[in-house]
């Protein structure tokens, strides 16, 4: 009896290994075709891949569109990959798959600074050029980083907005994404740094709340801020989900508290206005489609060999003009897209249909 | 003397009463630390923000009562919510009432399919709903096609969540109506009895002439219907439809039920319990930022509270059983 | 040897039942071969070497499958494993960054996992009335919460000393070490489940816990051991996951529990308990991994992949059920 079961087990195991072998062989036979197609690819088209943070998000979609448009215009082949969830785990599988496909470059908006290192190093070892956009990885796992706007600049404009809207003094609070979000934490730290200046001495940052980028939790957090600090004047939300939820709460309650931060124009159009009926006088963001385009030009330049990712390298990004790689705060290098763009009642109608 | 004893007995004897005590203690402690908690506005805000979970808890109550489980509810919600959002965005349908009907219809269809697979296909509930959790969530992404519906697209629809009838917010009102209907159905109608019968002993129920698979089908369809309704409500409350909305919240719904004393093996649980359970979860979510617990520790505290409440439930039950036995011995 | 005499008795009425089960597993092998041919035909980069290279990340979930199969056969469920992986991976990175020797880091990783599993088991065996789903839901939030607290405001930790992890991520030829480790544990868990009194007790508890108790099986002790083993394997998974990530964050291990359960269920293990074989779970795990790699390589929409996996999961259970019903009807018709 024992033998019987064992032999069955063995058979199953053997069949399994055979099957793997089968699959391997099978692809082996088609290997020659794929190689010939590979060589044809090499002679003509290069393949450039972009990995976004998550699927089903218009910001990421615009980013990928901008990337794709440039790559296709320049005669390359473009692969747009969304991970199945907004986690680094899911992005690792995506990167592994891209290595198998033998792409020439990967541009990635990282969900985590550190946890992609092993797979991105493997990609670079395989000769793939790796750059980041939107949110960076640590310096070991990238060649350069296309930054939407300098961290300091974002901190500066947001602090100035808070100063302006409060009228120079009073209590204000921050509603962020998760307490672990890399970008948001960097911007908040930059704001705190800016706040040390005497100009902002009458502003009091009462709390940094975290809405986890969930509408429900962000709503809870906003309401908690309002009831905890009756003298609150401004909420600054440097995250698109958070600012949206906060805007909704403030506007529904006809609260006198005002809002600013970083948000998508299409999402926020309803809440932007100078009068009391609107909760957000103005806010900032950058153009995700431009960010994607610049990242595409960066990928092309990396693959061409025009740049290597060292500070001081210069390249031309089509009709976007010339860009230079500079040193980043973390010891790596970055390319800065430009200053954050201000959305106010005068231009929101024009932008809300764009992204 | 006798009367006193019976009152004492009803208090310790019913799970709902002990839950109520937990709830009151919780409220007192919180309002001690944050006086603004127990104001009418704050409570109304809390109910509005948690109405979606509270309504789905009702459906889950039915599912758990017959010994099933449904972990696809958040996905069904996202699918119906995204459909509503997209219909509004591309201006196909603008009538609020019609949109609610569509959302409910989609939810009912989703629930019906799940029910058919479980009741007629004899697939275990956890497996079937796990599969549909992926499928419906995927469909929500597909229908959204990487777009969100934002406040601006939603036109009049979003005003639904602002409107009031008799001083009560529409969303909260819908929740209350749902609870009343369920309370009546579960307590005083044949359908309610059937659900309890199937849950406590399926074979016995089947022998006594109840079509158990029809009851199963009904329960999952009701669950889907409520999830569909909640999809529309969630879009109205947050003025935004995103494919990942309420991701993972099915666990909150189940937790609310279990905290409310609903047994996961079926047959035990009540509408009042489900209400108290979901209320406790809502209060925890609302109170944690208010009492000033560090943001980073909030999840841990929430998990510990859930565990403590559930374990306390068991301990009181044990003490109760012991007391009952003692009474018998005497 | 009481076990031996018991074995023959158990096996006598099993013949026809066994046949059908074998059917399911052999069918899975066929499916596995078909899937591989299918993937190779749709993607030119689907090759032996590329599949093996992509596999390690997916294989970490396999570690969770083995004990999860035991838990499902008990008729229970553990949804906290993803969080245990997260906590253990976090602690592993932190230990490694303290410049502790690699062997200590490995021990930390395994120990953290084991402790978490033990806590689950302890609560569940002390309060037997509690449904495992709700307890592990609670501990899931707590374990991930502890990881969040220890990660602090960055929410992410990097591995400064990757030396040891590079070693365990190594390969023999094209075959990564992790595949051997998975194979070893696969054999151990399969043999224990199908060949020992312990394994048979697991089935006994799964089919009727009370009967098992009265026939002298230490139900609670076995549950405690299995949940602790679950934690241990989660720790092991965390160790290998760290070797493919070089870091950890608060979302590490998200959804691992559902993947492990799906693999087991697709392999014919019933969540109602008492039924199923680990062999089926292992083959179905490989099927799911290959399918994911293949569909990933043709850059299919990730949500579509999830829809396909969800549909497969339901069909895998639904089709045999319908087939069985049709057979039953034919039989009754013939009898008439």
From TrEMBL, chain A:
- Sorted UniProt keywords: Signal
**Compartment(s):** Cell envelope
Its signal peptide is 1-21
**Is Signal found in the keyword set?**
yes
SUPFAM superfamilies documented for this protein: Periplasmic binding protein-like I
Q: Which residues form the Periplasmic binding protein domain?
A: 49-305
Q: Where is it mainly found?
A: other
Q: Which PROSITE patterns match?
A: PROKAR_LIPOPROTEIN (PS51257)
Q: Which GO terms describe its molecular function?
A: carbohydrate binding
Which InterPro entries does this entry report, sorted A to Z? Bact_Solute-Bind_Prot2, Peripla_BP_I, SBP_2_dom
Recorded GO CC terms:
outer membrane-bounded periplasmic space
| Extent of Basic and acidic residues compositional bias | 32-44
**Region Disordered: start and end of each range?**
22-44
Gene3D superfamilies per UniProt: 3.40.50.2300
**Alphabetized PANTHER family for the sequence:** ABC-TYPE SUGAR TRANSPORT SYSTEM PERIPLASMIC COMPONENT-LIKE PROTEIN, D-XYLOSE-BINDING PERIPLASMIC PROTEIN
How is this protein named in the record?
Monosaccharide ABC transporter substrate-binding protein (CUT2 family)
From TrEMBL, chain B:
Q: Name one GO cellular component term.
A: plasma membrane
Query: What membrane topology was assigned to this protein in its record?
Result: Multi-pass membrane protein
Name the keywords, alphabetized.
Cell membrane, Membrane, Transmembrane, Transmembrane helix
Location of the protein in the cell: Cell membrane
Q: Which residues cross the membrane?
A: 12-32, 52-85, 97-118, 124-144, 165-186, 217-241, 253-284, 296-316
Which GO MF terms are attached to this record?
A: transmembrane transporter activity
Q: Which residues form a coiled coil?
A: none
Q: Pfam families this protein is in?
A: BPD_transp_2 (PF02653)
Q: What is this protein called?
A: Monosaccharide ABC transporter membrane protein (CUT2 family)
From TrEMBL, chain C:
Q: Where are the transmembrane segments?
A: 21-43, 63-88, 100-123, 175-193, 224-246, 281-298, 304-322
Any keyword Cytoplasm? no
The membrane topology term of the UniProt record is: Multi-pass membrane protein
Does the keyword Transmembrane belong to this entry?
yes
Q: Which Pfam families match?
A: BPD_transp_2
Would you indicate the residue range of the signal peptide? Answer: none
State the UniProt keywords alphabetically: Cell inner membrane, Cell membrane, Membrane, Transmembrane, Transmembrane helix, Transport
Grouped into one coarse class, the protein's main location is membrane
Query: Where does the record say this protein resides?
Result: Cell membrane
GO terms for MF: transmembrane transporter activity
User: One cellular component GO annotation, for this chain's record?
Assistant: plasma membrane
Top-level lineage group: Bacteria
Official protein name in the record: Autoinducer 2 import system permease protein LsrD
What organism is this sequence from? Muricomes intestini
């Amino acid at each position: 009896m024992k033998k019987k079961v064992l032999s069955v087990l063995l058979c199953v195991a053997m069949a399994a290994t055979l099957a793997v072998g089968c699959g391997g062989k099978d692809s082996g036979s088609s290997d020659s075709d794929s190689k010939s197609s590979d060589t044809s690819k090499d002679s003509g088209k290069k393949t450039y891949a972009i990995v976004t943070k998550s699927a089903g998000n218009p910001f990421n979609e615009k980013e990928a569109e901008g990337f794709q448009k440039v790559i296709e215009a320049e005669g390359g082949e473009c692969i747009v990959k969304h991970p199945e969830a907004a986690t680094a785990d899911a992005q690792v599988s995506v990167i592994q798959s891209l290595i198998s496909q033998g792409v020439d470059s990967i541009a990635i908006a990282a969900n985590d600074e550190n946890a992609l290192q092993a797979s991105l190093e493997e990609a670079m070892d395989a000769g793939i050029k790796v750059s980041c956009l939107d949110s960076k990885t640590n310096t070991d796992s990238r060649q350069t980083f296309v930054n939407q706007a300098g961290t300091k600049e974002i901190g500066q404009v947001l602090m100035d907005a808070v100063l302006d809207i409060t009228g120079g003094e009073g209590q204000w609070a921050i509603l962020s994404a998760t307490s672990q979000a890399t970008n948001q934490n960097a911007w908040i730290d930059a704001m705190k740094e800016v706040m040390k200046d005497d100009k902002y001495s009458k502003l009091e940052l009462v709390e940094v709340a975290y809405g986890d980028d969930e509408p429900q939790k962000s709503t809870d957090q906003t309401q908690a801020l309002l009831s905890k600090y009756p003298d609150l004047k401004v909420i600054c939300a440097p995250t698109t989900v958070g600012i949206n939820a906060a805007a909704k709460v403030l506007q529904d309650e006809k609260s006198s508290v005002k809002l600013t931060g970083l948000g998508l124009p299409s999402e926020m159009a309803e809440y932007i206005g100078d009068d009391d009926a609107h909760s957000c006088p103005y806010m900032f963001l950058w153009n995700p489609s431009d960010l994607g385009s610049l990242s595409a030009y960066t990928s092309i330049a990396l693959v061409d060999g025009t740049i290597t990712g060292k500070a001081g390298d210069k390249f031309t990004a089509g009709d976007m003009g010339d860009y230079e790689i500079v040193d980043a705060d973390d010891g790596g290098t970055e390319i800065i897209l430009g200053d954050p763009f201000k959305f106010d009642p005068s231009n929101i109608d024009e932008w809300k249909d764009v992204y | 003397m006798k009367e006193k004893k019976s009152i004492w007995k009803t208090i310790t004897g019913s799970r709902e009463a002990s839950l109520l005590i937990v709830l009151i203690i919780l409220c007192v402690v919180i309002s001690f630390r944050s006086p603004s908690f127990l104001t009418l506005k704050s409570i109304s805000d809390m109910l509005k923000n948690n109405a979606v979970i509270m309504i789905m808890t009702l459906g889950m109550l039915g599912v758990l009562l017959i010994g099933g489980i449904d972990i696809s509810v958040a996905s069904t919600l996202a699918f119906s919510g995204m459909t509503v959002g997209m219909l509004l965005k591309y201006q196909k349908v603008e009538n609020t009432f019609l949109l609610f009907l569509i959302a409910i219809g989609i939810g009912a269809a989703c629930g019906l399919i799940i029910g058919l697979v479980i009741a007629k296909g004899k697939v275990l509930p956890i497996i079937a709903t796990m599969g549909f959790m992926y499928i419906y969530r995927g469909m929500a992404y597909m229908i959204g096609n990487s777009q969100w519906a934002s406040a601006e697209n939603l036109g009049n629809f979003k005003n639904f969540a602002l409107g009031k009838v008799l001083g009560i917010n529409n969303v909260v009102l819908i929740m209350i109506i749902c609870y009343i209907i369920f309370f009546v159905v579960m307590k005083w109608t044949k359908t309610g009895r059937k659900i309890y019968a199937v849950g406590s002993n399926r074979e016995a129920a089947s022998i006594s002439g109840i079509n158990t698979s029809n009851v199963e089908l009904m329960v999952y369809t009701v669950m889907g219907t409520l999830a569909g309704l909640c999809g529309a409500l969630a879009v109205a409350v947050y003025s935004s439809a995103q494919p990942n909305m309420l991701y993972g919240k099915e666990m909150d719904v189940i937790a609310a039920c279990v905290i409310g004393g609903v047994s996961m093996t079926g047959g035990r649980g009540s509408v009042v319990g489900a209400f108290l359970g979901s209320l406790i979860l809502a209060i925890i979510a609302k109170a944690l930022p208010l009492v000033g617990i560090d943001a980073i520790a909030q999840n841990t505290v929430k998990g510990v509270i859930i565990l403590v409440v559930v374990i306390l439930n068991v301990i009181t039950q044990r003490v109760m059983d012991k007391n009952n036995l003692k009474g018998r011995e005497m | 040897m009481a076990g031996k005499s018991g074995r023959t008795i158990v096996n006598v009425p099993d013949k026809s039942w066994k046949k059908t089960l074998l059917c399911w597993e052999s069918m899975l092998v066929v499916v596995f071969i078909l899937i591989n041919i299918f993937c190779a035909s749709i993607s030119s980069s689907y090759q032996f070497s590329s599949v093996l290279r992509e596999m390690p990340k997916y294989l970490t979930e396999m570690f969770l499958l083995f004990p999860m199969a035991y838990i499902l056969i008990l008729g229970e469920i553990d949804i906290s494993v993803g969080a245990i992986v997260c906590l253990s991976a976090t602690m592993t990175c932190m230990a490694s960054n303290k410049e502790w020797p690699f062997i200590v880091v490995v021990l930390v990783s395994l120990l953290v996992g084991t402790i978490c599993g033990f806590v689950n088991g302890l609560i569940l065996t002390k309060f037997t009335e509690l449904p495992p789903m709700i307890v592990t839901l609670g501990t899931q939030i707590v374990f991930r919460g502890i990881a969040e607290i220890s990660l602090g405001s960055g929410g992410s930790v990097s591995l400064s000393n990757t030396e040891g992890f590079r070693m365990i991520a190594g390969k023999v030829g094209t075959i990564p070490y992790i595949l051997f480790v998975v194979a070893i544990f696969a054999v151990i868990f399969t043999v224990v489940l199908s060949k020992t009194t312990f394994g048979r007790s697991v089935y006994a508890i799964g089919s009727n816990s009370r009967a098992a108790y009265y026939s002298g099986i230490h139900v609670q002790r076995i549950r405690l051991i299995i949940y602790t083993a679950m934690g241990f394997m989660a720790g092991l998974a965390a160790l290998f996951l760290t070797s493919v990530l070089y870091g950890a964050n608060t979302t590490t291990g998200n959804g691992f529990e559902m993947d492990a359960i799906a693999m087991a269920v697709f392999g014919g293990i019933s969540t109602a308990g008492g039924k199923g074989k680990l062999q089926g779970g292992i083959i179905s795990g490989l099927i799911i991994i290959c399918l994911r790699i293949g569909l990933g390589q043709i850059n299919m929409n990730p949500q579509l992949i999830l829809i396909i996996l969800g549909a497969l999961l339901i069909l895998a259970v639904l089709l045999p059920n319908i087939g069985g019903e049709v057979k039953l009807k034919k039989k009754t018709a013939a009898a008439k």
